[in-house]
């Protein structure tokens, strides 16, 4: 049976095409397919978080020509916490559009995979709230959020330099574009602290039509106006993504780290 073609939308590769948005899509091998309209609907995706996602999801696809340049470093930020557990599903039952985040670690100079690295992610929930004992701005007046550790987790990179997390699509909060935080350690050495972004058109689809985000007001900050990334840098740090047949969003990115 021939392998079913999966189409990847390259993050940051949006082209204005009349009144809509067009994207360069690529097949499994990485070759261009066509400029196609971004015509998914929010109803094409699952709701309610990761509950009920059974079975094995298909392997994540990364670009045939990966982004092995050194990934831009950022500050740890006020919403980081310590003692984050190793786990693949980081949701702790919170609702949202189920999203698998897959990261591939590569040496920036050689593009060789980095095995055995400790990769940590954290991000806000659909409301724009972080969990844990963090700075007040992260979950002000939310005792339940402060007492939990949702949407935080660690994984160890495999022989291909890959880690994957089951989570939900991040919520937004004032002055920030939609993002996740990440931290990479190798032994006792910190390789990178950074952040990655999501395509603005994808965020519009989620926030304007997905039931788990319907209560939120319209966001004001796009990738080009983010307060952490310079507008000239933002497009380089946007996930590639696809819609899996299960209604799960797959977001993928290759992280280049200095040797």
TrEMBL record:
Q: Does the keyword Protease apply?
A: no
Q: Name one GO molecular function term.
A: ferric iron binding
What Gene3D superfamilies does the record point to? Aromatic compound dioxygenase
- Pfam families in the cross-refs: Dioxygenase_C
Keyword Coiled coil assigned: no
Which keywords are on file for this protein?
Dioxygenase, Oxidoreductase, Plasmid
Q: Which domain of life is it from?
A: Bacteria
What InterPro entries does its record include? Intradiol_dOase_C, Intradiol_dOase_core
**PANTHER family from the UniProt entry:** INTRADIOL RING-CLEAVAGE DIOXYGENASES DOMAIN-CONTAINING PROTEIN-RELATED, PTHR34315
UniProt name for this protein = Protocatechuate 3,4-dioxygenase subunit beta
Species this protein is from:
Sinorhizobium americanum
